[in-house]
User: Which sequence fits this backbone?
């Protein structure tokens, strides 16, 4: 293409779209829509934000650590130790707060890796088309057809139980949905006029893919991811419950529950409270996920 | 139709091969050397090498995968490190309890999802409340539900047993089915009392997920022209939904049911652990405690194959239920 020394307005707009578009696409949240949300949805959105902040900050405020012995083993809940102590005399409240934080952070890691791996595969498949597309999508379908959680079980058992290995195992099976979502969007966007124009303007493939095709999938990916948080937390908690998480001194909600089962009929709090913490996290995440979907899709 | 079904079955075989390959890969990365372990500590280096050669462990990995498949087809999964029985015999001992539990959960899932879906789709009282209740139940981890039920129905109300399964079913291992057909109704009732709490806990999550899809699908179908015609004939809203809504709403529901199978199968492992239900799940979770790898591989394969086969069956069922899919 023969370029004049001074690019025209049209050419400028095509070659370098306004920067602002990227973060707008990334957020994909249009604040104007916030007012069209039902009150219940606003409440769930705000409780998710509050809970997230609480979960991130609270462990730092807890007066005791997760391994510190603070009172007699299996002390019932009291004013000085709100949730009581576990079978070794460690404070349950502190351990649950740390466990909640590690649950949330682990979910972020899994979903982040799903978005990255799935996004890359979906983007390549959607843009390349043809044989590359069919090959990558067959691979994706194959992964979707396999029983993911069961394979994670076998993978983690082989690697040896620890939170890190659990995360690796879940990351291996957690990307196919994201690949599908991104591939669908990329495929639809790749044939749109603005992408054609960007290509004709002589932009590199990488730039066309990242700046002109990819942003269209931010919205659907955020919706999928926010509806996914609850599932990931549940799966990780179940794996930890089965003993695939980090060994004992680590504060994980699933393994704390499994451990507390021994004392279920004498000290119910040791088993029930960590399990209830998982429930609260997933409950808020699911309602907030619904609200985010309505915010972006409606 | 025949072509579509054949295609689906071929795809199923492909997925099964992939499943065995992944399990084989996992099997191959375990750090422990199975040959050295089987010969004991006193074996010399030459003995180990000779045995490796004999068992094919010195061959390239694709040849080893071929051997692995061969062993699998002959039902040879090695011996459990914990029970010292062959894994195949362990699996066939523990499978009936799990199948029985899964069948009961399947019935509960069908009934619950139908009630939840139809109720929340119809505009009748409490529909919104049902929706909130559904999301709440779907958010509860299976072990939380299990523990709460045990505390309520066993510990406080003394209504149901907390764990285990009644003896009986000597011939097949299917306690409930055997008691029922031999006319031992009190035995059957006892077995049902043991099974009902774990079955409910397994069923709740999938029932809610399927119920939500059913609700969405029903709401869509109920806006269509043929439904308006049915209404204008003067049918009651309930009759319209039953005869004109449900069958047309079935396709996405079946798809969701297939997807939920994965959750049911992992749910089984957790729930059997909570309720000490002596099935494949409890076997798997004890195997995990002891790093009993042959047993873990065995359970993964059996449950994985069940998952793949059931999903193929669900796909074929969709073709049967919805003639529109056959034209594609």
Assistant:
């Amino acid at each position: 293409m023969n370029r004049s020394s001074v690019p025209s307005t049209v050419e400028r707009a095509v070659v370098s779209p306004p920067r602002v578009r990227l973060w707008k696409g990334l957020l994909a949240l249009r604040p104007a829509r916030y007012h069209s949300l039902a009150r219940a949805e606003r409440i769930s959105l705000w409780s998710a934000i509050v809970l997230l902040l609480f979960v991130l900050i609270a462990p730092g405020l807890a007066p005791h650590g997760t391994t510190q012995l603070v009172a007699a083993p299996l002390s019932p809940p009291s004013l000085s130790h709100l949730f009581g102590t576990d079978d070794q005399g460690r404070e349950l409240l502190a351990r649950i707060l740390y466990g909640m934080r590690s649950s949330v952070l682990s979910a972020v890691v899994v979903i982040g890796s799903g978005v990255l791996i799935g996004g890359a595969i979906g983007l390549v498949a959607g843009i390349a088309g043809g044989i590359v597309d069919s090959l990558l999508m067959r691979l994706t379908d194959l992964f979707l057809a396999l029983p993911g959680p069961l394979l994670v079980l076998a993978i983690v058992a082989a690697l040896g139980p620890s939170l890190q290995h659990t995360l690796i195992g879940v990351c291996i099976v957690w990307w196919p949905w994201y690949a599908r979502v991104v591939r669908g969007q990329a495929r639809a966007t790749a044939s749109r006029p603005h992408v054609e124009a960007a290509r004709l303007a002589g932009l590199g493939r990488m730039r066309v893919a990242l700046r002109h095709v990819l942003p269209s999938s931010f919205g659907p990916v955020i919706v999928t991811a926010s509806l996914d948080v609850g599932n990931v937390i549940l799966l990780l908690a179940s794996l930890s419950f089965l003993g695939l998480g980090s060994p004992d001194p680590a504060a994980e909600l699933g393994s704390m529950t499994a451990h507390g089962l021994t004392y279920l009929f004498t000290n119910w709090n040791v088993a029930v409270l960590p399990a209830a913490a998982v429930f609260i996290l997933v409950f808020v995440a699911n309602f907030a996920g619904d609200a985010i979907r309505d915010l972006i899709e409606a | 139709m025949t072509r579509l079904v054949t295609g689906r079955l071929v795809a199923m075989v492909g997925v099964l091969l992939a499943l065995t390959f992944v399990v084989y890969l996992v099997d191959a990365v375990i750090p422990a050397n199975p040959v050295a372990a089987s010969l004991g500590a006193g074996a010399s280096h030459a003995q180990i090498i000779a045995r490796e050669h004999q068992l094919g462990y010195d061959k390239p990995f694709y040849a080893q995968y071929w051997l692995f498949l061969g062993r699998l087809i002959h039902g040879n999964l090695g011996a459990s490190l914990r029970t010292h029985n062959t894994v195949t015999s362990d699996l066939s001992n523990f499978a009936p309890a799990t199948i029985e539990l899964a069948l009961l959960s399947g019935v509960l899932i069908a009934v619950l999802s139908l009630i939840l879906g139809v109720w929340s789709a119809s505009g009748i009282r409490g529909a919104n409340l049902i929706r909130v209740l559904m999301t709440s139940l779907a958010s509860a981890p299976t072990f939380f539900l299990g523990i709460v039920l045990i505390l309520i129905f066993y510990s406080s109300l003394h209504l149901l047993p907390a764990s285990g399964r009644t003896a009986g079913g000597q011939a097949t291992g299917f306690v409930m089915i055997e008691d029922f057909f031999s006319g031992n109704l009190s035995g059957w009732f006892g077995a049902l009392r043991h099974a009902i709490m774990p079955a409910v806990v397994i069923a709740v999550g999938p029932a809610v997920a399927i119920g939500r899809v059913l609700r969405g699908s029903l709401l869509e179908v109920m806006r269509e022209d043929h439904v308006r015609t049915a209404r204008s004939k003067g049918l009651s809203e309930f009759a319209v939904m039953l005869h004109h809504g449900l069958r047309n709403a079935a396709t996405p529901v079946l798809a969701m049911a297939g997807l939920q199978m994965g959750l049911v199968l992992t749910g089984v492992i957790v729930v059997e652990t909570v309720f000490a239900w002596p099935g494949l799940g409890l076997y798997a979770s004890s195997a995990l405690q002891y790093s009993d790898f042959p047993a873990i591989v065995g359970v993964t394969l059996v449950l994985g194959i069940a998952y793949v086969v059931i999903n193929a069956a669900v796909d074929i069922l969709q073709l049967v239920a919805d003639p529109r899919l056959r034209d594609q």
Chain B has a mean pLDDT of 83.
